[in-house]
Amino acid sequence: MGRRGLRAGAGAATLLAVVAAVGVGGHRSHGVASRTAHAAGRTTPTAAPRASHVQIVAHPDDDLYFMNPDVEQAIKAGDPVATIYVEAAEANGRNARRGQGRTAPVDYTSYSAARHEGVRRAYARMATGSPQARWIASTISTAAGPVEMDHLQDAPQVRLVFLDVGTWRRPGGMQRLSGLWDGSVRALDTRPARGSLAPARLSYTRNELIAQLAGLLARLRPTVVRAQDPDPERGYDRKGKGHRIDHPDHTATAQLAWRAIWRYESSAHLPVVTEFYRGYDNRHWPHNLDASAERDKMALIGTYGDADLQVGRTGDLNGWPQSTRARYPGTTGWIAPLADGRMAAVAVVSGRVTFWEETAPNGAWRAGRPISSPGFISDLSLLALPGGRLAVFGVRVSAGSSITAPRYRILYATRPRPGGDFGRWQDLGNPAGHATARQRDVGAPVPAIDGRGRITIFSRNGGLGVSGRTQRADGSFGPWQDLGGHRIEDGLATGTDATGRIELFGAATPVGWRWDRPSGTPGLWHWRQREPGAPMGRGTYTATPGPVTGPLTMSTDTKGGGLTLLARVPETASTLAFRASRPGGSWTAVPTDLAGPGGHGPIGSAGASVLAGRDDLGTVAISDTGAWTHSGPLFVHAPGIALDAQGQPVIAALGVDGRLNIARRSASSAWRWQEVS
C-alpha cells in the first residue's frame, strides 16, 4: 500500500534504530528484530512440498491490508510462504506519525528500510508469535542482478523478497510502476533500501520485470499465488471524472504478476491456483470480516506500524482492513450431479478448466483432466441441461491488440452425454461489447435454465448493474441486455423454482453509501421471470431489515420447490436466509439468522438444509444440524456444494495444493474428506 491521503508525512529522524550499521561478524540489527547476513548464489530448486504460497504485492503492508487473514492461515499451517515486494515504496520519504510529517526530513531509502522492517516484524509475529524473532538476510542471483531475500531463523519456510523498484521524479514528470506497465516509461531503476544486502542499482523494462517475477516463481515453486486486483472497479472523483478505485501501482503490479503467473504455469510441473484480492474499493462496500478477524488483522498492521510510523496504530482509518474480498469472488455451483447419478466438478488449475468425475455413484473419483486452453479466471459454474447434458461457464482472458489490452470473454462448453467429451468452447462475448477497457469490468458468469430449457447467463457489468444474455429456441443466444440495477456487488445468485421461472438477486448499497458515511441500509436487487421463456422482469431494490453483503447464493428447497437465498451479515460471523416458500411466491420480509462460521466469501447450500462456507481458520465450515462443524483442508476460492442422485449433500474444496477434496457424510454422520489427484 503506498503512502496516501490519510497518512501523514514522515522523516528519517524518527526512524529510531530501524536501520543500523553492519557489525562485526556480518550481523545487523533492524530495530528490535535482527537479521544475520549471508550471501548465496543461484540455487537449484528442491522438490516442492504439497502446498506452497507466494504473494506478489506492490508495497510492504499491501499483503497485511488486503490478503490477510489468508496469508496468516497459510503460515500457521506450516506451509512455505514467501512474499515478493515489487516497489521500494519510498513514498514521500518521511517516516513520522500523523500530524508530524511536515517537519520531518526526507530520506527515501531510510523510509523504505522502515517499511521492510515493518513487514519483517509482522511476519515474525505471524510465524513465531514474537515480532522480535531473528531474520537471516541473503542475496540471491537473478538474471537482472542480486536481490535480497530474508527468511526467519526459527521458521525458515517464511521468506520475504525485496525488489525495490523506485518511484522517480524526473524532469518529464513522475516515473512509476504504472507507467512501466502502460508503456509510458521505458525502464525503471531500483532504489535499494538503506542497509540492503543488494545495494547495486538495477533497471527493469516491463518485460524484464515480468521475467524477474516469473523466475522468482520458478525458484519458489508455489502451488498458490496471491496477487492484487488487476481490474479494480470504476468510481468517480468529486469532479465527476471516472477512475479505477485503487492505487495505480497496485493495478500495475497485479497485471505484471498475472503475466508472470502465466509463464510460470506453462512450465511448472505441479498444480497452480491463483487468487486476486480487492484493494481500496473495500471502503465502498459493507465490511465482511467479523470483529475478531478485524481485531487480529489490525494487530498485525499495528505491529507493522511500529516501524512504519505513517501507519502507526491508525491503519483502520481508511476503511481498507475491515474486509478481505477476492476480486473474483467464486461460486459454490462448480459441483453438480450427472444424469447417470455420478457427481462432477470443475475448477481452474494452472489457468485451465479442469474436470473431475466419479467412476460410479458415490464411488472413487477420476483424476482431473484439463478441458480448455489456458487463460481462465477462477469463477466457474456447472449447469445440468435437459437430456443429460452438462455445461460449464467461465471467463477467459486472451491476447488483445497489445499486452495492456487483453480480451475478456465469457465462454461455455457443453458435454452432450455422461462419459463423453466436452465440445468446442462457445464465445458469449462480454456485456461491454468490443470496448476493451470496459471488458475488464466483467463479473462472474452466473447461469440459470428455465422451464423451457433455455439458458440465461448473468454477469455484473462495468456500471455496477447486471447484464444478461438469453438462449433462443434454436439454441443460439440473443444479444446482451442491460437489466438495470445500481451499486451491485459481484457475486450474483440465481435459481429456478418448481414452475420453471428464473429468479436473480444481487447484494447492493444505496447510491452514495460509504463505510464511514453510510446513507441508507445495504439491501438486495431482485429480478424474476414472469413465466418460463419470458424476459426477466424489471429489477427492484429492497432495503432489507438489516444490512447484507455478498457474494450471494441460492438453492432449491427439495421439499416444497421454493428457493432459499443466503447472504452474509456485514461485520459479523452470521448468515441470513431469505425464503420464498412456494414457487412464484413472495420472499420473507424477515430473514432467518443462521449464525455463521466466520470467514469470508459465499455460503453455499444444498437443498436449503446443508450449508458450507469458509470459516475463520481458512477451512470448510459445514452446518447440517443448526450447528457449524469445521473440517477439511485449507482451500482457495469458495467451496462447492450440491445434492447427489440420492439427495445426499456432497461438498467440494480446491485445496491450496491444487487438489480436489470431496466430503460426504459417513455412516456415523460425520463428514469424511477424500483427496482426489
UniProtKB/TrEMBL annotation:
Residues 227-249 are annotated as: Disordered. Keywords: Zinc. GO terms for biological process: glycoside metabolic process. The keyword Zinc applies. Residues 228-249 have a biased composition (Basic and acidic residues). GO terms for molecular function: hydrolase activity, acting on carbon-nitrogen (but not peptide) bonds, in linear amides. InterPro entries: GlcNAc_PI_deacetylase-related (IPR003737), LmbE-like_dom_sf (IPR024078). PANTHER family: 1D-MYO-INOSITOL 2-ACETAMIDO-2-DEOXY-ALPHA-D-GLUCOPYRANOSIDE DEACETYLASE, N-ACETYLGLUCOSAMINYL-PHOSPHATIDYLINOSITOL DE-N-ACETYLASE-RELATED. This is PIG-L family deacetylase. The lineage of its organism: Bacteria, Bacillati, Actinomycetota, Actinomycetes, Streptosporangiales.
